[in-house]
Design goal:
The protein is built from 13 helices and no strands. The chain is mainly α. Helix 6 runs antiparallel to helix 7 and helix 7 runs antiparallel to helix 8. The termini are far apart. The mean pLDDT is 93.
Length: 298
């Protein structure tokens, strides 16, 4: 019930259902302290409650319940180090905690949490080199580390993490070029590298990365015009290319890129006029087009 209500956007109803489930599992776990299944059930409920609280913006409360879940899964993982599922639970929990710290602006603690998750997933991936699931987990962990390094203005550190993420993402797509999720991961990897190179002043390098991302996103968006996530990804790729072209003084190219962004974001905002994020995207794009137009005037 909680999952359905959350999918419907009813966060309040989802929270009520999850918290009722958590109460039941707390009682069951209290009577089965030595039962790993009951303990893991309790951990899962804590994660779900934390997720919906985070979605509601209740970050402190979400952090509290994630930490409770971490305490459980640390004990379970320590008691069965060969259990990949439990070890992955540990990674998930560290990442959730890192996400909260990042949202709160506590980059130091966020990095610590992400690094703990990375250490575990590195060990798991090394022990099972054929697992694409673990490879993708590892890729995501490197991406999270890169996000924090970038936020800390540690651009060399961010680039190093993103390049490791990219290498894994490229390897996965090479295994299955039809896997849309892996292809989107690869587009994100190129995009993050473009962001760092732009911050470092490497405009040609940034443009190359953005255009590689753009090529993937054009393919994905063309395959499903109704997928709003892929359409917005494509919008951002054109927007990023436009930003770099403007910085390079290539105003005609910049204007063309921003106009392509506009043709994507206008239908999205028309589809859902209440989406404030899309409305902001639309406003920013129009501002860029006006700005370029002013620059081009004699």
């Amino acid at each position: 019930m909680g999952d359905v209500r959350q999918a419907q956007g009813d966060l309040s109803g989802a929270r009520t259902a999850y918290e009722e489930g958590l109460t039941i599992r707390e009682r069951l776990a209290a009577y089965g302290a030595d039962d790993p299944r009951r303990q893991r059930d309790l951990y899962i409920s804590q994660i779900k409650v934390g997720d919906v609280r985070r979605a509601q913006g209740d970050l402190s409360s979400a952090l509290t319940v994630y930490k409770q879940g971490l305490g459980i899964v640390e004990r379970l993982a320590a008691s069965d180090e060969e259990n990949t599922e439990l070890q992955r639970d540990l990674v998930v929990c560290h990442n959730r905690i890192g996400d909260i710290y990042r949202a709160q602006g506590d980059l130091s603690n966020a990095l610590t949490a992400y690094q703990k998750g990375l250490e575990t997933i590195q060990r798991l991936a090394a022990a099972d080199e054929g697992s694409t699931l673990l490879k993708r987990d590892l890729s995501i962990s490197y991406n999270r580390i890169g996000n924090i390094r970038e936020a800390q203005n540690d651009f060399p550190g961010a680039l190093a993490a993103y390049e490791r993420d990219l290498a894994i993402a490229e390897g996965l797509v090479a295994l299955d070029a039809q896997n849309a999720a892996w292809k989107r991961d690869l587009s994100v990897s190129y995009n993050t590298i473009g962001d760092v190179r732009r911050s470092q002043g490497d405009l040609p390098g940034a443009l190359e990365a953005y255009e590689r991302s753009l090529a993937i996103r054009e393919e994905l968006a063309a395959s499903d015009a109704h997928n709003s996530v892929w359409q917005r990804d494509l919008f951002f790729s054109h927007f990023n290319v436009g930003d770099v072209r403007e910085l390079q003084g290539k105003l005609c190219d910049a204007l063309a890129a921003f106009k392509r962004s506009l043709t994507i974001i206008e239908p999205l905002t028309a589809r859902d006029p209440t989406n404030a994020i899309w409305q902001k995207d639309l406003t920013l794009t129009k501002e860029r087009i006006l700005r370029i137009g002013k620059k081009k005037r004699p």
